[in-house]
Amino acid sequence: MRICFDSQIFGVQAYGGISRYFAGVAAELPRLGELDIRIAAPLHINAYLEQLPAGMVLGRRVANPRGISLLRRLAGAALCERTQRRLAPAIVHKTYYHAFPRAPAQAKVAVTVYDLIQERFPQDFPPGNFIPKMKRLAVQKADHIFCISEHTKRDLLATYPVDESRVSVTLLGFDSMQGLSETANPVEFRRRLFGGDRPYLLFVGRRPGYKNFWGMINAFAASPWLREHFGVLCFGGGKFGVDELARLQELGVADAVRQLGGSDAVLADCYRHAAVFVFPSLYEGFGIPPLEAMSVACPVVASNTSSIPEVVGDAAASFDPASDEALRETLERLLNSDDERMELKQRGLARCARFSWRRCAAETLKGYHAMLRR
């Protein structure tokens, strides 16, 4: 059976969760049976595709860190359509929601829904955001829809008129941080960041809106004990803007909060050397950072909403993200208990072992077979 992934996401992501998902599934599917997996990405910027077997990726990487221009993306879509017609696959799995590139007429079409964040939090996105409309059309036309969590499936069925028999859940895999070697010992790492060996709370990723970064900062600022004994490290998300710096100053915590970017190896160090990783998001379609933290025995504090409980299970200290006070109390309790932190570390290592790209690929293959039987 020939399965083709289209070019959409690989023309806009050099790195990123969606392209990592498709590369992970594509790498594992051939190990599950007589499957011919192809990625029709004539012009792409994606690093993960470079790691796949020779011949799987039909296209070349364009050296442009700012991404491919609109004109070149349109050209890439046209070339992708031509490549897919030549391949004549049984299934085309669209990597995002755009109508183009179109699948060949004889192919069944699958699409993956990652979350309903833009539908649930429209205020966090620019006016005139057209992605929900594209998503609606994509799921209506698809022969099969994959959702990356049960919560995403429930949201999809509640939001769009979709036949549930066409929907299946494929929980994501993730890349363990264990294999990344340490770049600094813990004391040196913390001293470099804070000017002294100060333990810290870790936040990873984008900070605006539903990510609830300010809920975490409010909880930290409201605790004299936390402010005296801990700092806060933000990895990724870009440097603090003027408004963010002003707000940190107003809360009296500007001297305790740092921002850092870097490679996956640096991120692994951030997890390893943290007192605790905090995942305060109001909504996630899945949520990989808690698993990354667990894989290097970093205790996790996580919201009890959306898909997050599906991911963390009993391996995180959970709290209601609508309450900054609940987060403050959870942090103070956990950071005062060596026994609870050790228990979470052990549970976390066991929990993250359940999530793999092999399992995700196997569940995806079941969905393909179900689609072809209909």
Question: Mind explaining what this structure looks like?
Answer:
This protein has 374 residues and is α/β, with parallel strands linked by helices. The protein has 2 domains: 2-173 and 356-373, Rossmann fold; 186-352, Glycogen Phosphorylase B (Rossmann fold), CATH 3.40.50.2000. Helix content is 41%, strand content 16%. It has 15 helices and 13 strands. The protein has a 7-stranded parallel sheet with strand order 3-2-1-4-5-6-7, with helices on both faces. It has a 6-stranded parallel sheet with strand order 10-9-8-11-12-13, with helices on both faces. Helix 1 (17-28) crosses helix 15 (357-373). The two termini are 16 Å apart.
Say what the CATH topology of the largest domain is: Rossmann fold
The CA-CA distance between the termini, in Å, is 16 Å
Distinct helical segment count = 15
Structural class: alpha/beta
What's the order of the H and E elements? EHEEHEEHHEHEHEHHEHEHEHEHEHHH
On the 0 to 100 scale, the average pLDDT is 94
**Can you tell me the residue ranges where pLDDT is under 50 for at least 5 consecutive residues?**
none
Report the sheet-strand fraction.
Answer: 15-25%
Seen as an oligomer or otherwise, the chain set is single chain
Q: What is the CA-atom radius of gyration, in angstroms?
A: 22 Å
Helicity, in percent? 40-55%
The top-level CATH class of the largest domain is: Alpha Beta
Q: What's the main sheet like? A: 7 strands, parallel
Strand line-up across the major sheet: 3-2-1-4-5-6-7
Strand runs, count:
13
The global form is elongated
Provide the CATH architecture of the largest domain.
Answer: 3-Layer(aba) Sandwich
Total domain modules? 2
CATH superfamily of the largest domain: Glycogen Phosphorylase B
